[in-house]
């Protein structure tokens, strides 16, 4: 064989060997450990994206509190019967038959009991004054007084109704059944609401159903552009009552016949907005600042429409109200943040301003933030109080329609009043602990309470799961405050309300 032929054969053999080696190297990289080997340039790009685009856990309160509930949130997404554990690399590790036992917060329960025993003597010697509108206004009930009259005159300085007031359930029943005699559109506001007058002269605010309970808030929508939900008003009333606040007006669900109960009674500009949709359903949109056009019309099925009916509070001529700017109000701007979002010591400024520098109002704001966090309501810009009771009175929990929109997201910033001031009412914490430890969790208590409503089931199941998860976050926040203060009585305040 000639030298030239031998060289050609040798080169070809070398090429074959190199090809085999390269193929084996690639296959080894693909199969090694069951994981793909990331090229160097890809690792550089990922490192940059992780550093500059992803949110990092910088030790902030929001991040730490959100981590407390991460396991429960994953369970809610996956479903209670198919819990999946996630490993450190993000891989699913198989089915988990039971969740880890929850923290019972025995330290908080011990602190609550201690404060209860310490203040027992002072409670015996101090009689709490809680006058009603009837007492302060010296008004007597007429013989033909309606349940609305009884409700209005029984409103007290601490609450809209007493825990054992039998008139409230009777009032809710009437709201579901009384004949509607007159309707008008409520002026102001961003979305459509109707003022309802019943056959006995009672009034209610009607918020119609816009979409199914399963529809969540759009991810790219700001809190101030979200729709109001009729079922959020109903659920917030039940939650407010279960928590012992009783500062939300009674609300009941009801299905109306749009033809007989709305269209037949509508007048003027409202009447002109009724139409039949291409699908044959009766619709209307009214006139308001936003969402009052044909593209955002409210339609029946074909003319049956569900909605919430909130019982009117007393007329302002009888019991005028004062409007207060919420100290933790958001900026309502797409790019600008409020001062409290930038200053962790913001509460010190609030405590220097009337009426938060004395009395009960600051603790009332804590209660309101807890209610708002549980329902996921970021739209608390103002609140109202009755002038006749002065400044030592509870705020009214109005306008809860923007709650219950994100069952899989916990907006911890709603708790800013709590974690910035580190104060909570003793009775509120006791109630939260009772629902956390059982025998009936908050979600089940809500399910039972709302089952009597005509709109039941009022909430989508993931929202009920979220209530228990968010309750744990609140308790963890209080625990951090107690640990930081060293003395539980500096955080847990027993002000006899």
Write up what this structure looks like.
The chain has 497 residues and is of the alpha+beta class. Helices cover 40% and strands 12% of the residues. The protein starts with a helix and ends with a strand.
What composes the largest sheet?
5 strands, antiparallel
Strand content bin: 5-15%
The number of helical runs is 19
N-to-C CA distance: 108 Å
Dominant shape: globular
The assigned structural class equals: alpha+beta
Helix content: 40-55%
Show unreliable segments.
26-59, 71-101
Radius of gyration over C-alpha positions, nearest whole angstrom? 29 Å
Produce a short descriptive summary.
By secondary structure, the protein is α+β, with helices and mostly antiparallel strands. It is built from 19 helices and 14 strands. The protein has helices at residues 3-31, 40-52, 61-68, 70-78, 106-118, 120-125, 133-137, 147-153, 167-177, 230-242, 258-263, 268-272, 339-342, 346-350, 361-375, 416-421, 426-437, 442-450, 461-485; strands at residues 83-86, 92-96, 180-185, 194-198, 203-208, 251-257, 275-276, 282-284, 298-299, 304-311, 321-325, 382-386, 424-425, 492-493.
């Amino acid at each position: 064989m000639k030298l030239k032929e031998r060289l050609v054969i040798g080169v070809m053999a070398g090429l074959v060997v190199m090809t085999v080696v390269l193929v084996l190297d690639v296959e080894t990289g693909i199969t090694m450990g069951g994981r793909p080997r990331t090229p160097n340039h890809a690792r550089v790009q990922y490192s940059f994206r992780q550093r500059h685009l992803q949110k990092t856990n910088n030790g902030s309160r929001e991040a730490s509190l959100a981590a407390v509930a991460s396991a429960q949130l994953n369970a809610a997404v996956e479903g209670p019967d198919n819990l999946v554990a996630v490993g450190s690399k993000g891989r699913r590790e198989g089915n988990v038959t039971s969740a880890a036992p929850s923290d019972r917060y025995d330290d908080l329960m011990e602190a609550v009991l201690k404060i209860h025993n310490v203040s027992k003597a002072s409670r015996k010697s101090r009689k709490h004054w809680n006058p009603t509108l009837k007492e302060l206004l010296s008004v007597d009930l007429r013989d033909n007084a309606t349940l609305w009259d009884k409700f209005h005159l029984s409103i007290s300085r601490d609450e809209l109704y007493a825990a054992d007031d039998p008139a409230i359930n009777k009032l809710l029943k009437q709201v579901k059944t009384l004949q509607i005699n007159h309707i008008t559109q409520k002026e102001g506001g961003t979305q459509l609401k109707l003022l309802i007058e019943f056959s006995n002269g009672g009034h209610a605010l009607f918020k119609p159903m816009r979409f199914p309970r399963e529809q969540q808030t759009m991810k790219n929508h700001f809190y101030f552009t979200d729709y109001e939900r009729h079922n959020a008003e109903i659920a917030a009333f039940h939650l407010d009552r279960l928590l012992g606040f009783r500062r939300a007006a009674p609300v009941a669900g009801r299905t109306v016949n749009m033809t007989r109960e709305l269209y037949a009674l509508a007048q003027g500009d409202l009447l002109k907005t009724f139409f039949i949709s291409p699908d044959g359903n009766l619709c209307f949109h009214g006139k308001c600042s936003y969402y009052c056009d044909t593209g955002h019309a409210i339609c029946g099925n074909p003319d049956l429409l569900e909605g919430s009916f909130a019982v009117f509070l007393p007329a302002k001529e009888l019991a005028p109200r004062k409007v207060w700017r919420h100290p933790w109000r958001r900026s309502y701007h797409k790019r600008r943040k409020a001062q409290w979002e930038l200053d962790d010591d913001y509460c010190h400024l609030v405590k220097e301003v009337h009426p938060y520098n004395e009395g009960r109002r600051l603790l009332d704001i804590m209660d309101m933030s807890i209610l708002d966090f549980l329902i996921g309501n970021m739209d608390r810009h103002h609140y109202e109080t009755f002038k006749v009771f002065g400044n030592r009175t509870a705020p009214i929990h109005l306008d809860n329609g923007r709650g219950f929109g994100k069952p899989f997201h916990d907006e911890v910033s709603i708790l800013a009043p709590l974690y910035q001031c580190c104060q909570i009412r003793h009775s509120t914490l006791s109630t939260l602990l009772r629902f956390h430890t059982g025998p009936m969790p908050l979600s089940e208590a809500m399910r039972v309470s709302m089952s009597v409503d005509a709109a039941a089931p009022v909430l989508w199941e993931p929202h009920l799961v979220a209530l228990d998860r968010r309750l744990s976050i609140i308790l963890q926040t209080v625990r951090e405050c107690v640990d930081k203060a060293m003395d539980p009585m500096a955080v847990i305040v027993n002000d006899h309300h």
